[in-house]
Design a protein that fits this description.
This protein has 268 residues and is α+β, with helices and mostly antiparallel strands. It has helices spanning 8-15, 33-38, 89-106, 169-173, 179-198, 202-212, and strands spanning 23-30, 47-54, 73-79, 112-114, 118-121, 124-135, 140-149, 219-224, 227-236, 242-246, 249-253, 257-261. Helix 3 packs across helix 5 and helix 3 packs across helix 6 (202-212). The N and C termini lie far apart (54 Å). Bound molecules: adenosine-5'-triphosphate (ATP). Adenosine-5'-triphosphate (ATP) binds at residues 59-61, 63, 65-67, 118, 125, 128, 130, 148, 150, 162, 165-166, 257.
Length: 268
Amino acid sequence: MALYDIDAKRIESQLSNNRYFQRFIYLDETYSTQVYLKNLAKETFGAIALAETQSNGRGRQGRSWQSVKGKNLTFSILLHPNIKPTEAQLISLTAGMAMKKTLTEICRTEFHLKWPNDILCGGKKICGIITEAASTADRILYAVTGIGLNVNMERSEIPKELSDIATSLAIEAGKKYSREDVLLKFICNFSEYIALFNSCDTAAIIDSYRKQCDTIGRTVRVICDDKTLYGRACGITDEGAIIIKTDQGTMTFAAADIVHLRMHDTAE
Ligand code: ATP
């Protein structure tokens, strides 16, 4: 039975020709779609789990992801990619590029990719992405990528603490979107990038990301291990880490919180 505007049977039938995803799981409520798919990782390949409500939806570093039932998209994707553990970050970067492409195709507004994989619109976050991987010393066993996209959430539905930092497609475009169409478009765009993983063309992924990442060239604040520093983002390594030029020299961060600054913000 279709709950809200998601018809799981229609999505599954649309996926029947997709090389990477055959299984679509639609949940009214779950603890976390990340945990749900991790539990299936040994027996299932190429699955997507979407939940209307997560009691423990999380972003990076255990931060909570908040959503509104029936309005947004909160889902996870299970993959068994043929890449090295050091390249796990590339899955998140890829999902970010595929989502930016999807949003740009359906909405005229400009979207920005903030390293590593937040998507911003007018400086506010519209999509968050997290990837968790299990690996041996030399290969990834599986990766689960979680995506929270604010689709039809209205301004009045944004939790108070996020009102200055979050937005949705509906707020930006002034109209509602079919969540099913957005999801199917994203899966199609993401699948094109997965083909590059499978042909081991990770250089093409990184080249494409370098061109699209809006953080490059910006003055930024970096928060890493309780230390804060300022600098200019000047590049991305082959593994997807960010390179920052600071007064103390050039530094590379595989994981950090980045804030895009206007020039005068650096004087804080
Ligand atoms: P940053 O925004 O600095 O990159 P992060 O990488 O930790 O933070 P995520 O892991 O993608 O971000 O998501 C968690 C954070 O996103 C939360 O700490 C909260 O600030 C914010 N957040 C939670 N729910 C939403 C939402 N629906 N829309 C936009 N932002 C949200």
